[in-house]
Amino acid sequence: MKFYSDFPIRRIRQIFIDLIATAVIVLGAWLGLTIGAAIGALAEVGRLINTAGKGFKGAMTDAANALSGIPLVGDAVRVPFDAASGTGGMLETAGTSTTNFITTVSVIIGSLVTGTVIWAVLLVWVRKRVDFIKNATAVNRISKLEEGQDILALRGLVHGSKKELAAVGKHPVQAWRDADPDVIRKLSALELRYAGVKPRRVVGRITA
Fold first, then answer.
1. Considering the chain, what is the average pLDDT of its residues?
2. Which of 24, 51, 86, 109 has its CA at 20 to 30 Å from residue 33's CA atom?
3. Average pLDDT, stretch 78-106?
4. What is the pLDDT of residues 158-203, one digit of tens each?
5. Which residues pair with 202 in a beta bridge?
6. What is the C-alpha separation between 122 and 22, in angstroms, rounded?
7. Nearest-angstrom CA–CA distance, 167 and 76
């Protein structure tokens, strides 16, 4: 498989883009983790509420238990403290729920940020790299076939721009049909250049 162009300038550009894409992916992962951690830090609020609720609940329960020992009025006196203890329990539960919610949100948002950056890079970068690798590999293999130059010339007709084909000859399609060796050589070279493969000698014909 051919991963990079045989032409130095294009190869350097491809390597540079690969490095940039890799750096962006790493940056996206770091950004997602950082944002997730920043949001996750807010979970401390929930933990504080939980701790305060637990402490308040414990204090009210202890007070209710202590007052319940007063003869005759003990049970009546502890009622408001039991109610306050219940409120403390609600605060404790609310703190736990808040902590869990913020932690979940931090994970989701961090993952979304990371995933979005990576998906965007892969969508643009990987598609182009895969297309190049497939085309360059195919052209490289075709160039080694006995009739490789003729096939490359046909592909050159497909991929060549109007200006490039005009530079090949006045009627490149007809010339290819007539097996004009000069036109076929030029069309073949055009396809090789398009695929990032340096011209080479092939069986029966010469591409450069």
1. 84
2. 51
3. 83
4. 888 888 888 888 888 888 888 888 888 888 888 898 888 887 654 4
5. 205
6. 10
7. 105
Q: Does this model's pTM top 0.85?
A: no
- Per the listing, tokens 């450069």 go with 208
Helix, strand, or coil (residue 15): helix
> Do residues 169 and 176 touch, judged by C-beta distance below 8 A?
no
Residue 3 DSSP code: -
pLDDT score of 127 more than 80: yes
Cβ-contact 54, 92 below 8 angstroms: yes
Q: Which DSSP category does 4 fall into? A: S
Q: Please, where are the H alpha helices in 68-171?
A: 74-121, 127-142, 148-159, 162-168
Measure CA 108 to chain center: 16
Domain ranges of the chain: 1-133, 143-208
